[in-house]
Amino acid sequence: MAAHRIFCTLIPPHILMPLATQADPALAYAARRTLERDAYERTHRDLTSLLGVPRVVRPAEAEADRPYRTVYDGQHGIGLPGAKMVSENSEDASGDAAVNRAYTGLGAAFDLFFDAYGRRSLDSDGLPLTATVHYDEGYCNAFWNGEQMVFGDGDGEFFLDLTKSIDAIGHELTHGVTQYTANLGYHGQAGALNESMSDVFGSLVKQYAFGQMATEADWLIGAGILSPRVNGVALRSLKAPGTAYDDEVLGKDPQPATMDGYVRTAYDNGGVHINSGIPNHAFYLFAAALGGHAWERAGQIWYDVLTGGELPEMADFGGFARLTAQAAIERYGHGEEIQALMKAWHDVGVSTEGGGGGGNSERRRGGFAGATPPPPPPQLHTSPGPDIGGDDDEW
Q1: Which DSSP letter does residue 8 get?
Q2: List 134, 175, 273, 293, catalytic entry
Q3: Cβ contacts of residue 93 below 8 Å, gap of 6+?
Q4: What is the rounded distance in angstroms from the CA atom of residue 294 to the CA atom of residue 379?
Q5: DSSP codes of every residue in 265-278
Q6: Which of 45, 241, 259, 372 sits 20 to 30 Å CA-CA off 60?
Q7: Distance between CA 89 and CA 108 in Å, rounded?
Q8: Does residue 172 have an active-site annotation?
Q9: Which residues, 6 or more positions from 273, have their beta carbon under 8 angstroms from its beta carbon?
C-alpha cells in the first residue's frame, strides 16, 4: 500500500487559534497567516497524495549509510524548495544560523536512526534529507510535507525561529519514518500515536545528540521556540503532559497524561496533538524506570513496533501497547523491561489485555511471542560534511 503523504505541523491549531483571534491585528496577523498557509498546504498535500507524485530517489553520488542533506533559503516566500544554501558536499558553513541549525538537525536525526537502529535515512534506502528555512513572512510553524522539512522564522512576538529546537526537527523528520513504515493514519488514536511517535523520537534525537541519560533529559518538544513573553518552556512535555505552558494568551497546555483526561473532539483530527500526551507519558515512564539511555531499550522497543509490520494504520492505544509488550518479550525476554513496560501502560490507564496489534477498525487475535535473540548492534556512525552545528546553548 502506498504511504500516506500527510502534512504534519509542529505547532497545532489549538495553540495558534488564540493568537489568531486577538483584537490587536498586529498580534493576530502572523497566526492567521500561518493557519491559512497550513490549510492550503494540507489541501495541496491531500491532492498530490491522491494524484500521486514521483518518489524522491537517492542521487547516484549519495551513499545509503550516510546522510545526504541539502538546506535551502525560502527567502520569505512560499515557493519550495528555494535558493540552495548548503549541501553534503559543501566545504564551508553558511553564514546563516538557521541554515546551519537545520543542517545539523537533519544530521542528528539521521545519526539516531542509523546508529541506534541501523536505519538508512527516513525510508531506510538513503532518502535525501531536504529542508527549507525562512519560509513565508512571520510563519509560526514547521512542517513535514511528505517530501521535505520546512521552517518558519516565527513572529518574534510569541514564536521564534523554528530551527532553534533540535527536538522539533527530529519530531518532523520522524513523520517521514512513520510515512515509510507503519503508515499510521492521522485521525483519532491512530493520529495521536502518529504524533506521539514523532514526539518520542524527536526527544530521542536531542538526547542522542547531547549524550543524555533518561534522567538528564528535559523531555520537552519545542524547547527554545517560545519567546520570552510566553509563560512556558515548550509546546509539549513527555515527562509532565499538561505543564509545558500556561499563558494568558496561548492558554494552558491541554495534554492529558492518562486516559482519565482523554479528550474527545472533532478538532485537530480528533485531538491528535492533545491525546498524544498519553502514549508520550507512557514512554517517559518506561524509559525513566529502565534508566540509562532512553534510545536503547525503550526506544528500541518503540522502533521495533513502528517498523515491524504488525501495527495497523488505524491502531488504537491498546493495540499499540500490546505490540510493545510483544516486542519487549521477543527482544529482551521476561525481565525488567516487560515489567517496567506493563507498569507504564497501567499508570497511564491503557490496557494491555487482549489480542495482538488491534486497531480502531481492525482486530487480530494472538498472544505474546516467545523470546528471540536480539540482532547485533549496528555500527556507530558519525555524519560527514561541514561542521556547522552550534553548541548546546543554541538549541
Answers
A1: E
A2: 273
A3: 86, 100, 386, 387, 388
A4: 18
A5: -STHHHHTTTTTHH
A6: 45
A7: 17
A8: yes
A9: 12, 14, 192, 195, 236
Q: Buried b / exposed e across 175-187, counting CB within 10 Å, b at 16+?
A: bbbbbbbbbbbbb
Axis-axis angle for helices 297-307, 188-210 (nearest 10): 140
Provide the H-helix boundaries in the chain.
13-20, 25-51, 97-111, 117, 166-180, 188-210, 268-271, 277-290, 297-307, 317-332, 336-347
| Maximum distance among all Cα pairs of the chain, rounded to whole angstroms | 61
3-state helix, strand, coil in the chain (%, to 5): 40, 10, 50
Domains in the chain, start-ordered, CATH in brackets? Answer: 8-378 (1.10.390.10)
Q: What are the residues whose beta carbons fall under 8 Å from the beta carbon of 207, sequence distance 6 or more?
A: 214, 216, 217, 293, 294, 295
pTM: 0.86
From the candidates 172, 195, 310, 330, which is the catalytic residue? 172
Helix/strand/coil for 107: helix
Q: Per residue of the chain (395 residues), what is the pLDDT tens digit?
A: 444 556 788 999 999 999 999 888 888 999 988 988 887 676 655 544 444 455 566 666 667 688 999 999 999 999 999 999 999 977 667 899 999 999 999 999 999 999 999 999 999 999 999 999 999 999 999 999 888 999 999 999 999 999 999 999 999 999 999 999 999 999 999 999 999 999 999 999 999 999 999 999 999 999 999 999 999 999 999 999 999 999 999 999 999 999 999 999 998 999 999 999 999 999 999 999 999 999 999 999 999 999 999 999 999 999 999 999 999 999 999 999 999 999 999 999 999 887 544 444 333 222 223 333 333 333 323 333 333 344 444 45
Task: Confirm whether 313 is a catalytic residue.
Answer: no
Instruction: Give me 99's grid cell.
Output: 541554515
Q: How many angstroms separate the CA atoms of 188 and 232, rounded?
A: 27
Residue in this structure with the C-alpha cell 496577523, named with its chain if needed: 29
